[in-house]
Amino acid sequence: MDFGLTEDQRQIQSTARELLLARAKPERVREHAEAGTVDTDLWGELCELGWPGIAIAEDCGGQGLGRIELSILCEELGRSLAPVPFLGSVLASTLIDHAGSEQQRERWLPGLASGELTGALGTLAGDTAELVLGAGQAGVIVLVDAEGGARVLTPAEAEITAAESIDPTRATARVSAPPDAGQALEGDVAGGLDRAIVAISSELVGVCDRALEMTVAYVKERRQFGVPVGSYQAVSHRCAQMLLETEKARATAAFAAWAADSEPESLPEAAAMAKAAASDAAREVTASAIQAHGGIGFTWEADVHWLFKRAQMDAALLGGAKQQRARLAAILADRLGASAPA
Amino acid sequence: MDLTFSPKELAFREELRGWLAENPPDPEPAQGGEDAHYTWRRDWQRRLYDAGWAAPGWPTEYGGRGSTPTESAIYFEEIGRARVPFAANTLGLLLGGPTLMVWGTPEQKERYLPPILSAEEIWCQGFSEPEAGSDLAALKTRAVKQGDEWIVTGQKVWTSGAQYAKWCMLVARTDDEVAKHKGLTYFLMDMEQEQVQVRPLRQITGEAEFNELFIEEARIPDANVVGGVGNGWKVALTTLMNERAGLGFALQIRLRQLLDDLIAVAAERGLLDDPRYADALAELHVRCESIRLLAWKGLTDAERYGQPGPEGSLVKWLWSDTNQRLTELAVEIVGAEALTAGSSWSYEFLRARGNTIEGGTTEVLKNIVAERVLGLPRLKVAV
């Protein structure tokens, strides 16, 4: 049993972190967030490095690596809040990869892998999906309905209207489409969605990690009553709680990413646990980050609010903590039913 | 990342599981109180010992199997899963023995280790005092050298198994002149002497799992100093570090079983379909699985990379908090039975209050995490 990353995975992690520290500095993230723009230079670089296709099979133009490698990138992008359309694209390609026909995969995956196309994934309520990440720029859109079905559409097959979310580091849009628009994805939609929520969970782990790092640095510096505020237990114990939540989210997300590749029979439970833990953790940790920063944490100037906003968006994406726990309860009830004597 | 067990580890688990299935302990005695319970656990340890299963993690030269930390963790998972009792001499096996292996002289190892394993000599732990709980180094029990003996006077508390113990791991102050951590010495004190009085300490559940020790000029030969005079703090830390290394896995399995029991009760009463209870039970499930993952992560990181992460303190904190939440929810789900004296749910509910205090209070664990993991400054307090 080994929770550590392989040498290659470590390499991916450190390269990603260094690149994003240099290219997605807080001031640059802020600049794009305030202008409502994508960092196209950075996105171009990431595409050249093959990031969007990291988990897509080689015969579809990807790198053919696994969900652990994808999770590593998601976590680093979550840490940096880089204003790039990575997550939406990856969510769309994950669904097409797992639930698409051979023809659908050949049509869409190479473009998504190279970054020539970006993708978006929306959850329908009726005919409309709200706040769909990157839908305004997407070349392909996947819409998931409440019954567990999914369809793939070209932008022309849907009505797309810009709609701003609370998180301006990534653009969102409203997507409406009649029920017969696009093509149905007839494969393993549930498996695709589980893999998608693991990617989101990993991004949330990165958000938690960065919020904790910023908070610890701040409370060591900030002095009141003649001492660093981090020396007060009311503050330091809050930071300890932030670490606990972060590590819970990290452990469950790591397990889920591993299960996706190596033990798919455990994936539904593992993915629901990861998303429940990460959604709660990120909301709590980023809220704590604001509180521990005091007044400055409430200002536009301090960067903690971007993390708080990203946490809310990702936590809600494809089902928040309560929804995941409802799934888990059903899994537990099924298991009990299966083991009970007839 | 590979979250599977090796064929050797799986074989270890199979062998132990098979043995436990074929050699169940006698049924728990319904009568006879603490003494009968102790005898039951001692007999059980002897059966484990005869089959070579008392402490597989001990090196072969001391009678163990030389099992890896992963195998030891599997051992405690299986002990928990089989719902068998802990060995009578758990403190000797998990704390005393491993401490002696690090700090003991060859003579001490030869003299003390075999009877720990066979349960011939039971060990207890004399660390905490009425005035020295979280601030252990403030302890006041005093040992004064007289010829080749030490004369010890003081009081200890939370000493489980003291009434059955032959040896006490005792930390006492041997030097007042130096900083409080530096004036301590670690002794092995013979409990079979008039000068040591044991008084049961009745706890919240009504039973007396622990004792108070009243020590009035007890004698300890100089040969029973462990790790050298004035080195007691370091030796005690070795004991404390061993405290949860293995036991954590058994506790995590017990938590899992308790949760499974509670889910079964909830299902029986049709409460699993009630979103309020379903949500609370699923949250406990997430916590339970996080504890399992974090415990394995801490153990295997230490084994593979030589560096344990922050998991140790986090696991104990999360486990104790989760066990309290679980038993609180049980009171709501089970109803009157969980508040009925003598019921197992009422016992679990009341006993859980101790979890966030024993073995490091949650407040102290948060301090450890804040200071040693996050590197936050420590508020200056009197030393």
List the helices and strands and how they pair.
The complex is a heterodimer of chains A (342) and B (383).
Chain A: H1 7-23, H2 26-35, H3 40-48, H4 67-80, H5 86-99, H6 102-114, E1 119-125, E2 128-133, E3 140-144, E4 150-153, E5 159-162, E6 172-176, E7 183-185, H7 189-221, E8 223-224, E9 227-228, H8 233-262, H9 267-293, H10 304-316, H11 321-339
Parallel strand pairs in A: 1-3
Antiparallel strand pairs in A: 1-2, 2-6, 3-4, 4-7, 5-6, 8-9
Chain B: H1 7-22, H2 33-50, H3 69-81, H4 90-103, H5 106-117, E1 123-126, E2 142-146, E3 149-157, E4 167-173, E5 184-190, E6 196-201, E7 210-221, E8 225-226, H6 232-243, H7 247-268, H8 275-305, H9 311-334, H10 344-351, H11 362-373
Parallel strand pairs in B: 1-4
Antiparallel strand pairs in B: 2-3, 3-7, 4-5, 5-8, 6-7
Helix pairs in contact in B: 1-3, 3-7, 4-5, 4-6, 7-8, 7-9, 8-9, 9-10, 9-11
Entry keywords:
heterodimer, A: 342 residues, alpha+beta, Butyryl-Coa Dehydrogenase, subunit A, domain 1, Butyryl-CoA Dehydrogenase, subunit A, domain 3, 2 domains, seven-stranded mixed sheet, two-stranded antiparallel sheet, 11 helices, 9 strands, B: 383 residues, four-stranded antiparallel sheet
Summarize the structure.
The complex is a heterodimer of chains A (342) and B (383). Chain A has helices at residues 7-23, 26-35, 40-48, 67-80, 86-99, 102-114, 189-221, 233-262, 267-293, 304-316, 321-339; strands spanning 119-125, 128-133, 140-144, 150-153, 159-162, 172-176, 183-185, 223-224, 227-228.
